[in-house]
Amino acid sequence: MATTDSTLNIADPGSKTGSRSRPKSTMDIQSSMKGIMSKVRETYSEESPLKKQQRILADWSANWDSAISESFGDESSELKSKKEEIIDVSPKAEAGDQIFVKKDSLPLREGGVDYTGIENITDLIKRSEGLRLKAYGDIKQTSIGYGSKGKPGEVITEEEANRRLANDIKSARNTVIKANERHGYEWNSNQIDALTSFVHNLGPTSFNKLIDNGTRGNEEILEYLPQYNKAALGKGGELVELKGLTERRKQEVKIFTQGYGS
Questions:
Q1: What digits encode the pLDDT tens for the residues 140-190?
Q2: Most buried in the list 69, 78, 168, 196, measured by CB within 10 Å?
Q3: What is the pLDDT of residue 54?
Q4: What percent of the chain has pLDDT over 90?
Q5: 9 pLDDT more than 50
Q6: Which residue would you say has higher pLDDT here, 94 or 43?
Q7: How far is CA 33 from the centre of its chain?
Q8: At what angle do helices 121-129 and 189-210 cross, to 10 degrees?
Q9: CA neighbours closer than 13 Å in the CB half-sphere of residue 123
Q10: For residue 133, what is the DSSP state?
């Protein structure tokens, strides 16, 4: 969730006339949200810790929009813009599932990426991730740029996004190269690129599971790789297949077996 810009005085956003009430302050917003969370906790205090957390999240999600609207009240154009920024990454309930809904598309979730003409690992990841210069709530972290780790409320330039991506790719590639040397796979550059994309997306732990700590051959790796196309976005942490992940896994398999431009 994006945080309020400290340079924006939301307690005194600008000139107001008449008897209309002024927008509430940051303290009012925090108090409103705390009040909702407190009521939810009291309601489910007798349930198991895990079940209680899941229900708290569900109720928090259901009350999110109304809490934001009530907290901001009668806003100026500046406050309206800030509210839209916050709601942009708010969790919403849809068809019984807890998912993140964003006004801007996220290719890894929604799919529809055109992978035509990609020539290298940077192209692949940029197409897969899409560019977001404002930090957004990702599945397990706050992300920014081309899927890099970010901080809530952070805003960066495209140049900075490219710099972070280069560092991320270097780190992911090193993970793959070390496994290649340690386990004697003899992967070529295309195969290393395909697995680097996988590590960039899911991390070293999932990569070690994919190769089963070096005990799986290439054919088994290719068999299991497409199965990593789900995320814990369902109600109660259930795994949900994401079209964007399915498409990315297909591209990784293609690059692993055929290379680029084929």
A1: 789 999 999 999 999 999 999 999 999 999 999 999 999 999 999 999 999
A2: 196
A3: 59
A4: 49
A5: no
A6: 43
A7: 23
A8: 50
A9: 11
A10: E
Q: What is the DSSP string of 178-244?
A: HHHHHHT----HHHHHHHHHHHHHHHHHHHHHHTTTTTS-HHHHHHHGGG--EEE-STTS-EEE-HH
Contacts for 133 with CB less than 8 Å, ≥ 6 apart? 144, 145, 155, 156, 157, 158, 161
Structural domain boundaries in the chain: 26-87, 107-258
Of 146, 220, 152, the residue nearest 185 (C-alpha): 220
Residue 201 · residue 128 · CB < 8 Å: yes
Q: Two tokens at 41?
A: 């906790």
CB atoms within 10 A of CB 245: 22
Phi, psi angles (nearest 5°) of residue 18: 80, -165
Q: What are phi and psi of 121, to 5 degrees?
A: -65, -35
Give φ, ψ of 17 to 5 degrees.
Answer: -120, 165
Question: For the purposes of burial, counting CB atoms within 10 Å of the CB of 253, is it exposed (0-12), middle (13-18) or buried (19 or more)?
Answer: middle
The verdict on domain 107-258 having CATH code 1.10.530.40 is yes
The structure tokens 């509430």 sit at 24
- Greater pLDDT, 241 or 76: 241
Q: How far is CA 249 from the centre of its chain?
A: 17
What does the H/E/C string look like for 66-114?
HHHHHHHCCCCHHHHHHHHHHHCCCEEEECCEEEECCCCCCHHHHCCCC
